[in-house]
Specification:
two-stranded antiparallel ribbon, 1 helix, about 20% helix
């Protein structure tokens, strides 16, 4: 069985979860998140790393 989910009040568990998803799954480097604006004015979040 999978272990029980961590509580929202567990600060260490929250910090661990926050650090998990910030590396590229292809190259392992840190992913940069930028906001791009289209010519129509719509904002879009993009994750930049190894251009995959």
């Amino acid at each position: 069985m999978a272990e029980k989910a961590k509580s929202k009040t567990d600060v260490a568990a929250r910090a661990e979860n926050k650090g998990k998803g910030q590396n590229c799954r292809f190259c392992g480097k840190k992913v940069d998140v930028v906001i791009s604006v289209s010519p129509m004015g719509r904002k879009k979040m993009r994750r930049l790393c190894c251009e995959k």
